[in-house]
Every structure is written in C-alpha cells, then in structure tokens.
Design brief:
Residues 2-32, 78-102, 104-133 form the C2H2-type domain. GO terms for molecular function: zinc ion binding. This protein is of the alpha+beta class. The protein folds into 3 domains: 1-76, no CATH class; 78-129, Double Stranded RNA Binding Domain, CATH 3.30.160; 133-286, no CATH class. Helices cover 39% and strands 14% of the residues. The protein is built from 11 helices and 16 strands. The chain starts with a strand and ends with a helix.
C-alpha cells in the first residue's frame, strides 16, 4: 500500500501511485531532478532557478545548454547580455540601458558601446555633430565636424587647394614662434627633412616584395610603398601637447588636435592654453598658399 500525504489517498501499487503523480493537478513533477511541486508555478520556478535546466519561461521552451538559451534570448527577446536580464519589450530594454548603462549607451541611437571612450567617440562623430567647420579654400567648401577633421583633410592632400601635410607643417613652424605646440629640439632635425620627398623605385624589389629601407616593411605594389613613404610614419614627432603635465608628442598637427579635443589630459580646461591653440588652429584654417 502506497500513500500520498498531499492528496490523502492510498494506492495498491507503485504503478498506480506514479500514474496518480502524472495525472493529478496537485502534483507537478520534474522527472530529471525527481522533485515534486504543488503547482505548475512551482515547477516553472524550479526550471528557471535550477542550474540543471536551460529554460525560457517566456516561451516555455527547454534548451540543451546555456549557450543555446543565451542565443535564444538575444535573437528572440529584449535581452541585456551584461546583466543577464530579459525585458518584456524593446522599450523596457531601452529604459534599462538608459538608467543602468548610461556611461556606454547612446540614447538617440539605442546602441551600447564597450567602453565610455567608444561612446564619446561615437557622440563626437558626424552622426551626432553637424559638419559646420567649413574648409576655407576656394573651390573646396567641404564641411567637417571639428578642426582636427579639417586639418586632417588638408594634411591628406585631398583638398582642391593643393594644401598637404608639408604645407601645414611649414606654416606651423613659421608661426609657432613661442613653440607652444612644437618641440624646438626636434624641429632642428625634422626641419632638415621637412621638404624632402622620399620616392621608391623598382630597385626596392627584394625578390618577393617592395621593401622599405627604413623599417623593412614589405608591400606587394610599388605604389603602396610610396604611399607608406609619403605618410607620417617615419617623420619626427615635432608636435607636443602644450600642457606641462602632459607634453605628449605627435607626428601630425591633426593628431595633436584630436588629442586636445578628446580632453584626455584636461588641457582644454586652461584658458591660456585654449587661446594659444585656437589662434594657431584658426590660423591654419585661414592660411593661404
């Protein structure tokens, strides 16, 4: 004789008792765990909380492993993978991200970033900032989101005016008389090479590729090697951050400008430094050939 205390019933055999467990509304059994629950809700909570089960309570689906459940959440539900939380809809997820991940979440784009600096770069991009810094040269008129983007445009040689990196560098050398953003010690050696253009020929072929004699980097095409030689790769880092506690050096003016605009060292907090930088950068933007 087998007795069910929950239902206050007796059974003549074990098969009859097991049949009762399967059919009775008072018994909700998890067979893999051999646990019996009083309600469907209790069984469901067991599925959700037990590490042995990989269960989606929203779809009432069991999965073979945790990675399959994770994929299901990400593709079928409003899911925060950082917090391992599922939300009723996308609006719920959006509000969660806005409040809990504000340092890495773009509210307008509803997009998460890995780091706060990545978010800041996104917010400083043309997606969120107008291209209201206009190239001043006749025949160009392209717009950029900030001064560093404009200077990079000039350094690249893509401006219709014909301005390139050498023109920009020579202008700064001539106008930064107080060496606010240039290192005079490095200008001495760099100035000797400032107007020298390195050009590779077919003699750069080493039998397998075109090789740079300065750094031994190899290229498949001669054009790529010459593009490398014309880049700032082998130039002196003549530009430096004007903040005494930073003094980080850069090869190009645009790189220095990006460093300042990023506010990583706090240089823009100082009025005197801002005035010097604004005068120089505005001068570059207004320079004529």
């Amino acid at each position: 004789m087998t007795y069910c205390s929950r239902c206050n019933r007796s059974f003549n055999s074990w098969p009859a008792y097991y049949q009762h467990l399967r059919d009775s509304p008072n018994h909700w059994e998890c067979q893999p765990c051999q646990q019996d629950f009083e309600s469907r809700l209790g069984l469901k909570e067991h599925y959700v909380q037990s590490p042995r089960h990989h269960y989606c309570q929203y779809c009432n689906i069991h999965f073979d492993c945790s990675s399959e459940l994770q994929d299901h959440y990400e593709y079928e539900h409003a899911y925060c993978s950082s917090c391992h939380k599922v939300f009723k809809n996308e609006l719920g997820l959006h509000e969660h991200n806005r409040q809990s991940h504000a340092d890495v979440y773009c509210v307008l784009c509803k997009r998460l970033f890995q780091t706060p600096s990545n978010l800041q770069s996104h917010l400083n991009s043309s997606i969120h900032r107008p291209k209201d810094t206009i190239c001043p040269f006749n025949g160009c008129g392209l717009g950029f989101i900030n001064k560093s983007a404009l200077i990079l445009h000039l350094e690249s040689g893509s401006c219709r005016s014909g301005v390139n990196r050498r023109v920009v560098d020579n202008w700064v050398r001539a106008n930064d008389r107080s060496n606010a953003i240039t290192n005079p010690a490095r200008l001495i050696t760099a100035g000797e090479r400032a107007n020298i253009k390195l050009i590779a020929t077919e003699q750069s072929w080493n039998g397998q590729a075109y090789e740079c004699v300065l750094c031994h980097t190899q290229y498949r095409a001669l054009m790529d090697l010459n593009r490398h030689l014309d880049s700032p790769r082998h130039q002196e880092k003549v530009y430096r951050c004007p903040l005494d506690t930073c003094r980080k050096h850069f090869v190009t003016l645009s790189a220095l400008c990006q460093h300042i605009e990023s506010e990583r060292c706090g240089v823009m907090k100082f009025r005197a430094v801002r005035d010097v930088m604004d005068n120089l950068l505005n001068g570059v933007a207004r320079m004529t050939l």
